[in-house]
Amino acid sequence: MSTESNIIQVENLTVAFGGFKAVDGISFEVKRGEIFGFLGANGAGKTTTIRCICGLLNPTSGTVKVDGKDVSSSTSVLKPRIGYMSQKFTLYPDLTVKENLAFAGSLYGLKRKQIKARAEELMRFIGLTQHLNEPVKLLSGGVKQVVALAATLLHEPDLVFLDEPTAGTSPATRADFWRLIRTLAQNGKTVFVTTHYMDEAEYCGRIVLMERGKIIATGTPQELKEQFFPQPPVELVFSRPEISRVRAELERTNIGEAENFSGGLRVRVNDWARFEAYAKEQAGVFTFRPAQPTLEDVFLKAVSGRKGA
Ligand code: ATP
């Protein structure tokens, strides 16, 4: 295994289906051992990119390298290194957890004894040993997702792709799942994760934001916040019940984007000078204070900045 800090290198990747570019000339790297967040709305091109990195789909143009090796010519070498929990990852409902894991292990050519030992170790790691002999159809959605994670990790991959692993699960399950993801990274695995939940993106070391096949922003959560919000968003506290009027005025004049928040407004300011002038003019109606930007703010601003691009 190479000791270079980048485990994945994507250069000018384009994937076209007919005349439609699902991925349009993107370049990025993933560092060894990091939790890398690949974010974007439905149809942004995330799954298509993952499929190229895993060697399941050939790019129309551009290159994808894992450990410095071109994926399209090294699939057999790379396959044992990669674990991919796809959105469509399915477990067999009538089989028990143990039987499902045995099946997943056999696909990677693991021996029975190895599978048994690994399955028990993994179920201990994820804290679900009590479910080993239960049929999967009796498990809750969240537990099924965690079992799918165990099946993905069975052959000890060091590069793990998780495509929307927490979609549709409860907040408690999401929190548990992220604890596992952090432990995986602490144990030296590289985790490449997609999610729609911007609060989850806060757990990632670095993030790429995708929209319609293109990268619209890259950085650590902190870097993205600083890049998109040299001036932080503000919270408006009202002394008079004029929230709707102020909200409409801020948006009509494009001074900022507002949302209702905690009995007042939270505003992503587009034009700071005009906002300050407006706040002065409205003295007695509201006061304002700076708020911490969230990754949701970053995403919305990045997308709105590209409207019409
Ligand atoms: P989601 O979270 O909904 O899966 P995504 O960001 O993963 O979104 P992709 O699945 O990569 O998006 O899809 C990107 C675009 O490419 C979508 O418009 C999708 O319909 C299209 N697409 C994906 N696979 C194919 C295919 N095999 N043939 C034609 N179009 C495709």
Q: Notable features of this structure?
A:
binds adenosine-5'-triphosphate; 35% helix; 6-stranded mixed sheet; globular; 309 residues; alpha/beta; 14 strands; 4-stranded antiparallel sheet; 11 helices
Short summary of the structure?
By secondary structure, the protein is α/β, with parallel strands linked by helices. 35% of the residues lie in helices and 28% in strands.
Task: Describe this structure as you would to a colleague.
- The chain is an alpha/beta fold and 309 residues long.
- Helix content is 35%, strand content 28%.
- It has eleven helices and 14 strands.
- Strands 6-7-8-3-9-10 form a six-stranded mixed β-sheet, sandwiched between helices. It has a four-stranded antiparallel β-sheet with strand order 2-1-4-5, with helices on one face.
- Helix 3 (97-107) packs parallel to helix 5 (141-153) and helix 8 (221-228) crosses helix 11 (295-305).
- It is globular and about 75 Å long.
- The mean pLDDT is 90.
- Bound molecules: adenosine-5'-triphosphate (ATP).
- Adenosine-5'-triphosphate binds at residues 17, 22, 40, 42-48.
